[in-house]
Design goal:
Blueprint: H1 8-19, E1 20-23, E2 26-37, E3 43-48, E4 72-73, H2 75-89, E5 93-97, H3 105-117, E6 121-126, H4 129-133, H5 135-141, E7 147-153, H6 158-165, H7 172-184, E8 189-194, H8 200-213, H9 215-219, E9 222-224, H10 230-238, E10 246-247, E11 253-254
Length: about 260
């Protein structure tokens, strides 16, 4: 399978020029949807545009790079919409999904700060690339008590990371470093891993690496499986990826 190798840090810089806008000292960001959802027992979600990984199984691929939308929101506007959804649906949890929330750190920090003032908790779902690249991300996030971080690992080994994302295999280390940085600053966090394309050997390798950072990461490791939505099946076929195990949209196991 031919995959063009790229550096996610360089991709971040390109994406920033498309999804961020500075106006009167406020960093605005592009979002394409706001919704309530069943995850975490009920959560208000803002779906942002732009990511620094090009995962070959991504279920948000149709939307995450829709730069033509050109609809920018301030952190306050996003927080107000999430608050409205939360009150309407009886939720106390909020998140940013769709793209990568850590692109636009100033926007993210201000958003979490406003949500904290509204007594709303925030789940930071991230691929961890920027949190591992720059320790200052974790340092700035450490000020919040209303936040938990879920680092979504793209595979179990550097080689698998490259196969699934197309990025340099060495960027896998940023994901693991993100977990170390978060725990070093006392931030509540756990790892999730896309396991659908993994081997038992790879899974053992990942658990060993997590154990070296902190045993709690092994005990709390969340297993993530590719969900065979029609548009996901389409991208898997395009990239000639076949999962070892997957889920149907209704959550039932799919025999491969």
């Amino acid at each position: 399978m031919a995959i063009t190798v790229y550096d996610p840090i360089q991709i971040t810089k390109v994406v920033e020029t498309k999804v961020l806008l500075e106006e009167e000292g406020i960093q605005k960001k592009q979002y394409y949807r706001f919704r309530g959802g069943k995850w975490y027992g009920g959560i208000a979600t803002a779906d942002c545009i732009g990511c620094n990984l090009n995962c070959r199984f991504c279920w948000s691929w149709r939307f995450k790079n829709r730069y033509s939308i050109r609809k920018f929101y301030t952190p306050k506007q996003v927080a107000n919409i999430l608050e409205y959804i939360s009150k309407k649906r009886g939720f106390s949890l909020t998140r940013v999904s769709g793209g990568e929330p850590t692109i636009g750190l100033s926007h993210l920090i201000t958003l979490i700060e406003i949500l904290e003032s509204k007594n709303l908790d925030f789940i930071l779902e991230t691929n961890g690339i920027l949190l591992g690249f720059d320790v200052n991300y974790a340092k700035k996030l450490a000020q919040f008590s209303n936040m938990h971080v879920r680092v979504s690992l793209k595979g179990t080994t550097p080689e698998e990371f490259h196969k699934l994302t197309g990025a340099f295999s060495s960027a896998f280390e940023f994901q693991l470093k993100a977990l170390k940085n978060l725990l070093d600053f006392g931030i509540s966090a756990h790892a999730a891993v896309m396991i659908s394309f993994s081997t038992e050997e790879g899974f053992r390798y990942l658990k060993q690496r997590l154990e070296e950072i902190d045993p709690v990461l092994v005990n709390t490791l969340e297993l993530e499986y590719v969900i065979l939505y029609p548009h996901v099946v389409k991208i898997l076929k395009k990239n000639k990826l076949k999962p070892n195990i997957a889920l149907n949209p209704d959550g039932t196991p799919q025999k491969i």
